[in-house]
């Protein structure tokens, strides 16, 4: 297939325009659902071995049956912490809401605070209370007595996408500024610069709002229940061997059905993940260096636009089919390679969709070009014999219905063989193109059709045209060609002129398209016999004065 016949500046402009559209679609996240579906397919089974130090102490259904209705006295949590302290646990996240004092027994708060102090490595959660009406957003911290003894506080804000799936989180968040680390980050206690997409907007533009920063996608170790887990009641009762708890990073939190937050993740849509195990995944991801970064919006848009621009440019080149076949998987492959090899997420749906649109537009254009080529003469661009016969049949049927006359004009180029023999085929082709342009110019109305049979034979189909009107058109055409001085040499016998035959008739039940051709051909023969450079009509009249 031939490339799109555009100059290079126009090709580049076309590529830039479609690339800009793709960049806008990417920046505006027009296809976020498709992006997330692709992301889930890429990471859903991308498992890894979690950090072996992590351990979940689950407040499960068994613990609720043994210890009674929730909430439990804070002294119970204090005894659990003492068990973990005695076993030599490295760090403990106590993922419990402790934002209000025990109003029935203040000694409970003091007992828990003392246990936290004895351990020395307890992380407590900070909850975000969103704004509601006149009420501003606020941070729900543990009560001062308990918070003062914690080694660190961390936010437990979980990012849930619009489709209800949890895929990422902000490693820092807080009211006024993102000053609290994520709970999983506080448990991992990793050092060095934080990964993630940084929000460069100043936080003081809304000092009483919940601000978040360092966005990352969570690399889940696998489906739910991937981390080792022991029952809260078993630890409290001493049924778990101390060596299992020794030097572990422990998360104490809810897993019991009915009272625990339930999260959907890309790893599975059939089983829910508890918030505690979610934080364990965050900690494991950070400890093992499996953080999935996200391209900045500007880079995301630029890469999408570049891929689509290259696709559009490729479709203007000779190997357009190969470009189309390579363009679509290129966006998906780029996204996959960046994710798997570089731990970087590039959302490809905008580029993929725009590539599909460009390729579909190209295919439609090519189909139209093929149709035009199938019905056009390759040298002159006029209709070919197939299109001529189709048009003559259509206009004959239309004239039969309307009762209007139909005229067929057959045209021969005089002395064309002599011209070819004298000046060569290249000069002959140039003459035919110039004559064809003149014939096309005389098919002035939308339904008029000019055609070339081959060689030096042309035709005009003139619907709703009387013999007088057709004669006027033919006389103008003969005069125009005669005045073109097509002969490149001084030889008078090589001057190019036209011989024309016309046939006009109102189509009726007894007529057929071949009758028009036979009538016009007979008139053309008479025009040639009369000395050429003129025309003859179907009623046996000739006129060489055109």
The average pLDDT value, as a whole number, equals: 88
Number-wise, the strands total 20
Q: Describe the biggest sheet?
A: 7 strands, mixed
Oligomer: single chain
Helix and strand content put the structural class at: alpha/beta
Helical content band: 40-55%
Q: Unreliable runs, pLDDT <50, ≥5 residues?
A: 540-546
User: What is the terminal-to-terminal distance?
Assistant: 44 Å
Distinct helical segment count: 18
Strand fraction: 15-25%
Shape, principal axes of CA atoms: rod-shaped
Number of domains: 3
The radius of gyration computed from the alpha-carbon positions, rounded to a whole number of angstroms, is 42 Å
In short:
The chain is α/β, with parallel strands linked by helices and 546 residues long.
List the helices and strands and how they pair.
Layout: H1 8-27, H2 32-43, E1 54-59, H3 61-67, H4 74-87, E2 91-94, H5 106-119, E3 122-129, E4 138-140, H6 144-147, E5 152-155, E6 168-175, E7 180-181, H7 183-188, E8 210-217, E9 229-231, H8 232-236, H9 242-245, E10 249-254, E11 262-265, E12 268-274, H10 275-288, E13 293-294, H11 297-314, H12 320-342, E14 344-345, H13 349-374, H14 385-402, E15 406-413, H15 416-423, H16 425-441, E16 449-454, E17 457-463, H17 467-482, E18 498-505, H18 513-529, E19 534-536, E20 542-543
Parallel strand pairs: 1-9, 1-10, 2-3, 2-10, 3-5, 13-14, 18-19
Antiparallel strand pairs: 3-4, 6-7, 6-8, 11-12, 15-17, 15-18, 16-17, 19-20
Helix pairs in contact: 1-11, 1-13, 4-5, 11-12, 11-13, 12-13, 15-16
